[in-house]
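Morning, I've got a small favour to ask if you have a moment. The fold is given in discrete form, as structure tokens running alongside the sequence. I'd be grateful if you could look everything over and explain what you see. No rush at all, and the record is pasted right below.
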Amino acid sequence: MSEPAFERVLLKLSGEALMGDREYGQAPERIAAVARAVGEVVETGVEMAIVVGGGNILRGTQEAARGMDRATADYAGMLATVLNALTVQDALEQLGVFTRVMSAIDVSEVAEPYIRRRAIRHLEKGRVVIFAAGTGNPFFTTDTAAALRGAEIGAELVLKATKVDGVYTADPKKDASATRYTKLSFDEAMGQNLGIMDATAFALCRDQKLPIKVFSIFKHGALKRVVMGEDEGTLVYA
């Protein structure tokens, strides 16, 4: 069996990835599938952290657009990520995967406070660390939280889980001739305005020389193939 290509990675898991074909909420079968994929990676010995979003429950920018105060909406969104983190934790532990949920806001009854050194120690012990509540600040997305936590814990790669299996030259649903990029530099991605992550998150990854891998979480076995270094998704690199 070949060795994994990475020792420590961070998976950015959007709320939408947890709701499957539903319009909102959580899909138990989808969450179970994600947990199995993560479990397969943990079995290879790779240390894995996860940043979860909350868009399947509440998205701050959407609520702000409806008239809710933006900061308040973002804090509500952070609480939504805690709900998702606990659900993912439960699914993983049912598979025998040891986990810790660490939150950027204080919810001490259900999660540890985020402390960088403690998070790294959990990873070294083989636990999957699930980061909830974004950065703990309004006006920042969970993309930015993924870039920040990835840099803090010394991850070698940020895995951007999406519904498509990489970055394409055009929308593959609209253009049959669209082709998938195997890899792109940060400058190329910015020059083509591909919108891989929000600008703050993307700039942080670029400055820290932290590569991003865009792949489909819905594609069976894709997560494991990425960490094994196989041709899966699109790599954005410094």
